[in-house]
Design goal:
Transcription Regulator spoIIAA; alpha/beta
Length: 150
C-alpha cells in the first residue's frame, strides 16, 4: 500500500488515490482493487461497511478485484461478519479474488469452503478465486482479466 491513504467517506471520496475502507483490514487501490490484510478480528458492522463500499465502488469501476494478503497471521472473522458478507454478496460486484501467500492448510480449507458453496449454489461461489505467491502475480492476473470480456 502506498503512503497513508485517506479514509473512505461514502459519496465523497475520490477513487483516484488509495484510501482506507476499514483501518487494518481493507483499503482501495485504484483503479479497481479492494485489498484485505486482516490485522485484527473483523466485526459484522465492518463487513457491512465493506459491502457498502463495494456497492458504491462498482458503478464507478465496473467491478472490483479482491486481493487478500494471507501471508500474515489471519485472525478470525466473526461468524456474524461472515454471514453479513454472504448475505450481501453479489458476484457481479467482485469480478475475481486473489489470495496471496496462503499456506497449504489455508488453501485446502478455502478450497473446501468454495466447493461447499458451489454445491449449495451460493452466489459467492460464482467469482473465480486463485492463489498466488506474490502480489505482482495476482495483479498481473487482474490485468489479464481487465482485457478479457467479463
Amino acid at each position: 500500500m502506498a503512503d497513508t491513504p485517506s479514509s473512505w467517506v461514502p459519496g465523497l471520496t475520490s477513487f483516484d488515490t488509495p484510501f482506507d475502507i476499514i483501518p487494518d483490514i481493507a483499503w482501495f487501490e485504484p483503479p479497481d482493487i479492494i485489498a484485505f490484510r486482516l490485522a485484527r478480528d473483523m466485526a459484522a458492522e465492518e463487513a457491512a461497511r465493506i459491502m457498502a463500499f463495494v456497492r458504491e465502488a462498482v458503478p464507478r469501476t465496473g467491478a472490483l478485484f479482491s486481493v487478500t494478503d494471507a501471508a500474515v497471521h489471519l485472525p478470525r472473522v466473526s461468524i456474524s461478519a461472515a454471514i453479513e458478507f454472504n448475505r450481501q454478496f453479489n458476484p457481479r460486484l467482485i469480478r475475481a479474488a486473489a489470495v496471496v501467500g496462503a499456506d497449504y492448510r489455508m488453501r485446502m480449507l478455502s478450497e473446501t469452503l468454495i466447493r461447499a458453496a458451489r454445491l449449495l449454489k451460493l452466489e459467492v461461489a460464482k467469482s473465480p478465486v486463485r492463489y498466488f505467491d506474490d502480489h505482482a502475480a495476482a495483479r498481473a492476473w487482474f490485468a489479464e482479466l481487465r482485457t478479457s470480456p467479463a
